[in-house]
Amino acid sequence: MSSGLRGKNISETALTWLKSLPRISLKNLREEPGQNVKYKRARGRYGGKTHGCMPKKNPQRQIFPRPGWEGGQTPFYLKFTKEPYYKGHHLKRQYPPLSLLYIQKLIDTNRLDTSGLIDISSLCKSGLVKFLPEEKHYGFQLTDEGIDKFAAKIDIEIQYAPEHVIAAIERLGGSVTLAYYDFHSLLALKNPLKFFQKGEPIPKRMMPPADAIEMYTDPKQRGYLADPQAVEYERGVLAQKYGYDLVIRKPPIRKDPLQIFLGLHPGWVVNLKDKTILKPKDPEIIKYYSSS
């Protein structure tokens, strides 16, 4: 009996001590010997090269690298494998969409002249069409938005158009021509005034690349390198397919495959000051600009 009371008293005494003793925490833990030694800044060579401070470089002078900068010797496109999906992506030609509804609005607001040829130059002249050759824009593609409301007879030169869009234009007596322009020709077409102010001869239009030859020589797609008789035959086939009668019309307004501007041949120089056109007379120069 006495031993039980004695054990009970010992446990109660231990619990009483635990209640009064401090708890172990980060505040009352003693540091190891030599862990935090206060450094006294010395003078001269005894303080080291920078006396414990960082050297004065770009971060201390608030000079930070530009956004997107990546340090090291190996750029990111060499660290990781390149997927074949992006092979030649920077060389792909882009064709911004241009709907029939938007063309009809430009015609209704007198932004486009339907008596002449509608090409890249006339579209850029309207000031309402975004065209950036430096971003691989190689022309426009016609879309079928507003195809039921389109009611204009036009001769348009475009870079891509589906079959039903071609039928919608030819049903009204118009014509569609798919034409290719190289980069330098596109720069001249975007701003003809800027090009003529340079006083340079008009360059000749280059032939389309190998992957585009088939499209621009196909009479079904109204390619500018296709046979005109084959194009007329395909116009009749398309009219029978969509159930409309061909409209008797004059020959469509078209450019020569080497021409950039309608009515101006390669090699000519336009003098804006005197309002004259200078034509070459050297047979070799004439032969160069007349050959593809």
TrEMBL record:
Database matches in InterPro entries: Ribosomal_uL15/eL18 (IPR021131), Ribosomal_uL15/eL18_sf (IPR036227), Ribosomal_uL15_bac-type (IPR005749)
Keyword tRNA processing part of the UniProt annotation: no
Keywords: Ribonucleoprotein, Ribosomal protein
Any single Pfam family the record assigns to this protein: Ribosomal_L27A
GO molecular function: structural constituent of ribosome
Record-annotated Large ribosomal subunit protein uL15/eL18 domain positions: 98-177
GO biological process terms on file: translation
GO cellular component terms given for this protein: mitochondrial large ribosomal subunit
Family affiliation: Belongs to the universal ribosomal protein uL15 family.
Protein name, entry field: Large ribosomal subunit protein uL15m
